[in-house]
Every structure is written in C-alpha cells, then in structure tokens.
Amino acid sequence: MEEQIYFKETSKQARRPDDRPGKKVEREVSPFCRTMISKTVDQLKLADHSLVLEIGFKSREYLPFLFQKVIGIGYYGNNISETVVLGAMSAPALKINEGTAQFSLAKEDGTLAIGNNFFDGCFTVNTIYFWKDPVAHLKEIYRVLRPGGKLSLAFMEKNIGIELPWTRSDFTFYDTNEVKTFFSKAGFVAVEVKQMTEEITGQNVKGIVRPFVNVVGRK
C-alpha cells in the first residue's frame, strides 16, 4: 500500500505538478526520479561549456549534480507546469562551476522556441508517456540539437508500467523497440539502448529495485 501511494505521487509529479495558487512550488524530487536523472545525464558525456536542454524538468534540486560534472554548463529546462517554472525562476541563481540555468514553460505539442542547431545535448526522464505524438516531439528535439548532439531519454517499459495501478489512464507506455523506431523516424542515428536499474530509498519506501530503459540517439 505504501509503495502504491509513493509511486502515485511520483506519477503526478512526472506528468503535471499541481498548478493551483498557494501550492508549494519548490518540491523535492523523489529518489526514483533522481536516480534516473543522474544516470540519464551520464549518457550524454558532456564537455565543458555544453548547452543542455531538459524536457520536463522536475526541480532545481538536482542541478548542482549536473553543474559539477563539467565547467560552464548552460542549462535550459522546460515544464508544462507554470507552478514549477515560476518556482524555479524565483529561486536564487545557481553559481556552481560557472554554470547558468534558464527555465521556460513548455507547450503541450512539444514545440520549442529555440533556433535550429543550438544545444549540445538534451535529456528527458519519464515524459514520453504523455506525448500525444512521440515522433513529432523527437523531431523538434532533433531540430534544436547541433550536429553530433545527443538525446538521452529514460522511461519504464510497457510490461512494467501497465502493471502499476495508478497508470491506468493518461499514460501510454512503449516497448523498447517502439522507442528505437521513434528515434529513427525522427532522424537520430547511432541509437543505443541500455537496460538500467535503480534502488529506491525514501521515507516510505526502501530497498525497491526498479528497472528502466535508457535510449540515446545522435544527430
């Protein structure tokens, strides 16, 4: 029961955090998402002064981890929740390893107000379930990446996601081969897939190991 409640809250955060006025806007990222994020970022193998886009950022909480990896990261995060974006923008500026952070409100259709060939890398975690047209979203990410830039995407496979009782509506899960096909249709090459796991530890849930998939494609 505790596990179900815990992951139900995680799913709400992944999809669209509460936008109601008066809600706390800076919230802790669950241990589940935090581990997926760190492993997903690692696959980009970023260089100093890279420009990085995150689709559907969860919080500023894990940005120090990103900024400490290399010098001078230029981070751009978007989210469809105005609450999350405003909360991130109103917090004090992060000053770590010369890194900078910008935040913007995402559009439901995935279009990005950025010119072509801008980012060195992009990562996104637990967002593909909510994209009405995954190929269209991936094509837009492909457009804003520089030649040679990488997208690192993490998700739970269909056989795991559909078994969770709180994902019966509003979630669309995919098999790994389906996601690889989406990448190819969007133009990505050298697509690599890695099966990963994470151990979740938190106040209500401890010692749970969950598998997830990471897919990386290059422009």
From TrEMBL:
InterPro entries: Methyltransf_11 (IPR013216), SAM-dependent_MTases_sf (IPR029063). SUPFAM superfamilies: S-adenosyl-L-methionine-dependent methyltransferases (SSF53335). Residues 73-152 form the Methyltransferase type domain. Residues 1-26 are annotated as: Disordered. GO terms for molecular function: S-adenosylmethionine-dependent methyltransferase activity. Pfam families: Methyltransf_11. This is Methyltransferase type 11 domain-containing protein. It comes from Pedobacter cryoconitis.
